[in-house]
Amino acid sequence: MDAQCCIAGGGPAGVVLGFLLARAGVETIVLEKQGDFLRDFRGDTIHPATLEILYELGLLEDLLRRPHQEYPQVSAKFGDVAVKVADFAHLPTHCKFIALMPQWDFLNFVSEQGLRYPGFHLKMNSEVSGLVEENGSVIGVKGKSSGGPFEVRARLTVGADGRHSIVRERAGLQVNDLGAPIDVLWMRLTKQSGDEDLTLGYFKTGKILVTINRGEYWQCARVIPKGAFDQIRQQGLPAFRQEIVEIAPFFHDRIAELNDWNNIKLLSVAVDRLHRWFRPGLLCIGDSAHAMSPIGGVGINLAIQDAVAAANILVEPLLHGRATAEHLLKIQQRRELPTRLTQFFQVQAHNRFLGPLLKGPMNRLQVPLAARLLRRFPVLCRIPARLIGMGFRPEHVKNAGNSLLEVAHL
To answer: Buried (b) or exposed (e) across 351-362, using 16+ Cβ within 10 A?
Structure first.
C-alpha cells in the first residue's frame, strides 16, 4: 500500500489527524491493530477546547446528538468538605462544559466523517510491528493484519500508537521519564437516583476515589500508590470492597458488583515525553510523544491538539512534496511548551498532594490551601477551569470553513 501519510494507531490523535489530512486532500492510511474501537476503562472526556475544534469543523451539533453527559463544573470532597474546583461558565468557547462520551463513540464518529473523503483509509486489524527505512529515513511501516503481512510506503509516517508505542521504540527515540507515584484501578458500579455527584471524587486520608457519572453507571478510579496493586490483591477482594465503601458510603448497597478481580483494571500511570518527537520521515504525536497522567483528564485533548497542529503544518508540504525535518520540528516547537507546562502541573500535583496523601496515616485530612481558597473565593474557579478546559495554547483548524477538496469542487 502507498499513501502520502501513514498513521500508526487509531486512537484520538491518529483518527483526528487522518480525518483532517484526508479532508484537505492528503491520501492517508490509518492503521489500527484492533478490530473495533470498543475499549473499556478508557478516558472519555472531551474538553471545551476539543469541542471548539469540532464547532470550527461544523461537526459539533452532530456529535452532541450522540448520548453523552455534560459537566459545566467539577467538584470534589476533601474529608467532609465539598469544594467546587472548576466552573466552565466563563470560558470563551461555544461549549462551556466537559462532555463525557465513550471513546469508541467519539472515534466511530470521527471515522465516519473521515470516510466521506476518498483519501481517508482506515485499516482495522492491522498491527504495526516495525518501520521501513531507506538511507536513514523512515519511508513506511510493516506489520501483520487479518489478511497476512503488509507494508505501507508513505511520504510521512506518524506514530500515534499510544504510551507503549511500537513506532517510537523501533525509531529509537529517547524518552524522558518524569516519574509518577501513583497507579489507578478502574471499575464501574451501578448509578442510582439520589447518588452524590462529585466529578473529582473523594479525598480522604490515604484514600482517593474518583467518580465519573456515565448515566447508568459510575466509572470509578481508585488511586493507589505506584506498584501497590499486588499487595491490594493479596489482602483480598472483600477488603478492597470495604475500602471503597469507607471512601464513598453510598456504594454500600451495590459494592457486591465487584465480585471478581477481572472487573478491576489496572492503569499503570506514566508521565514522560520524547526528547525529540521526529526523525526524517517520522513524527510522533499524542501519548506516543508524551504520556500524560490521568489528572484533569487532559491526555485525549492534548493528543487532539497535537493532531490539529500537525495537520495545519503538514497539509501543504504533503500535497506538494514531502514533509521535511523543518516541518516536523515546527510541530514539536508548537506543541512542546503546552506539553511541558501541563506535565509540570501534573507532576506537582503528584508530588505535593496525591503522593503524600496516599502515604498516610494522618490524624485528619487537611483540606489543601488551594481548595480552601477556591471555597472561599468562588471566582478563582475560573483558573482551573481555564487550565482543564482549554489548556495551554489551544489549537484552531486552519481553513476550517472549507477543505481544499471542497474549494476545488466549487
So the answer is: eebbeebbeeee
